[in-house]
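ok posting inputs for the guanosine-5'-triphosphate job
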Amino acid sequence: MEALLHPGLIRVRDDERALLNRLRRVLEDAGVEAATVASVEDVARHLDALFLVVVVGEFNAGKSSVLNALFGEPVMEEGPIPTTAKVTILRYGEERMDRQLSEYLVERRYPSPLLRALHLVDTPGTNSIIRRHQEITEQFIPRADLVLFVTSYDRPLTESERQFLTFIREAWGKRLVFVLNKADLARSDEALAQVLEHIRSGCRELMDLEPRIFPVSADLAFRAKTTDDPARRADWWAQSRFEPLETFITQTLTGPDQLRLKLMSPLDTAARLLAALEARLHQRRTALAEDERRLAALRERLAATRAELADGYRRYIAEVDTLLLEVERRGVQFLTDTIRVSQIGLLRDRDRFREEFARQVLRTTDHQIEQSVTAAVDWLLKRALALWTQTLTEFHEKMQAAGGAAATAAQAGFAYNRQEVFDAIMRETSRRLQTHDLSEEARRILSNVQSGVDTVQMAGAGAAGLGVLSGVLLAATTLDAVGGFGLASSAVLAAAGLTVLPRQRRKAIAELRDRIEGLRSDVEQALTRQFDQQIAETLGKLEATLEPYTRLIERERSETDRLEAEHAALRQETERLRHAVREQAGDADDALAG
Ligand SMILES: Nc1nc2c(ncn2[C@@H]2O[C@H](COP(=O)(O)OP(=O)(O)OP(=O)(O)O)[C@@H](O)[C@H]2O)c(=O)[nH]1
Ligand SMILES: [Mg+2]
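and the output
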């Protein structure tokens, strides 16, 4: 083989080796079955081995008999029951000798000059009840440079043969030649022609291939070669039709065509595997697009959740508003009752007035507001978590369902990661939301509300020791009234009481109403702002838990991009090498065109 290769072809062969190694890696990365990956490695390893013809066919078709006829000697055992139980590689040797290479592989040395030019492999029958036979034969197909497909006249192209042909051609892109054995069983030339046409149309239909078929009788050929009777020998040899097959094997396959076939065979295989890989990558791309679409839908759902939560908050704002209205009602009552001559002592004692106001009007409003806000935050977190869990679970279920329907080996790795990521997201979600300190959250909101309320109303509100909102409330409701009365002397008040006090009362009540109205709208606005912010933060945290998923999709996308680019490059390289082989090793033999 080496002797036949000029430097240009040696380079082609080295490039083929590099191509196969790259192909092996890409198949591995794309999650193709290990057996296929191993076979590609096998093909690369045997690039500079001797030309390999693998003889396949159903048991009893006459594979071993054809080889015996070729050698003119009983090299292989033959018989009417499943006979060949091991793949047997026939190699040249000075004397006949067997060596067991592995459980199902035997090397048989044989002193035939033909075996110096090529190796022949006899295989167990593919449809025998011994299933293992089929498997070991299949494992040998990737390595073949040419497949000799033996079928027999009495059962040409059976269903199992069709399946096996598909495997040889579709999965591995091997070139093949048919041997129609037991032609001696044909009663007439017409009958034989019919069978040949049956095989031809089967091949056209099955693989769009115009097959080369050698109809032979291995039995007659063997007898012709081994008889001592010269007259019968010529007769049997002619009847056996074996000569064209013998010429094909001993001359075509050992001549220049051998080199071309040898160099073309790995490229045929690479092309088939690349086609299969393309389909796989396409599936992967589709699954990825689906996941991306679902992720976008999930984000949309999150936006809808935002609206729902904002809506739910109104209830708590209304609760706070009611509390303030009650303050107003009690305040009016308080002012009505206290701005009177009979209460002149209280009116003149600024501190006591404020104390009474706090006791009778404010009461525990401050605390109640705090409770409302705490309840609001609590509700938000629970609701957000519930909505989130529901959304994520639905999302995940859809992904699982999709994964189940399109459960291909291509996506196995991807689907598994999805499950892992989903579990991590759920764990992270509850962890993040459980670490919230509710009362702390409520206090933060309230103090923000306080600073959001009109500062003019805050003037002089030295409400140390009171609750968060007390200062605001006090400032908003009492300061001016108390301040105003505080300035008046008791004499003036006593004298003017009758006429001044009712006016002052009306004025103080109107002012209180005014102030509380202002306060209500300020508080409502500030709470709305705070709650919106709280929603945004909570949802932001939830959305952030999606990040591993986003990353997974990104990784998957970039890996698919990479595999596709590599696929395209390998395809181009395969074509380039095909062209180089054609250029440098002669024109294609039409009958063996791939
Ligand atoms: N009539 C006829 N019988 C043949 C011919 N060639 C082989 N046979 C018979 O067919 C049977 C099977 O032949 P084998 O060569 O053992 O078939 P095989 O395909 O190697 O079978 P396995 O090793 O079991 O897969 C034997 O009994 C042969 O004698 C032929 O040309 N004509
Ligand atoms: Mg056999």
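notes: Confidence is low (pLDDT under 50) at residues 404-413, 454-468, 481-488. The CA atoms of residues 23 and 570 lie 7 Å apart.
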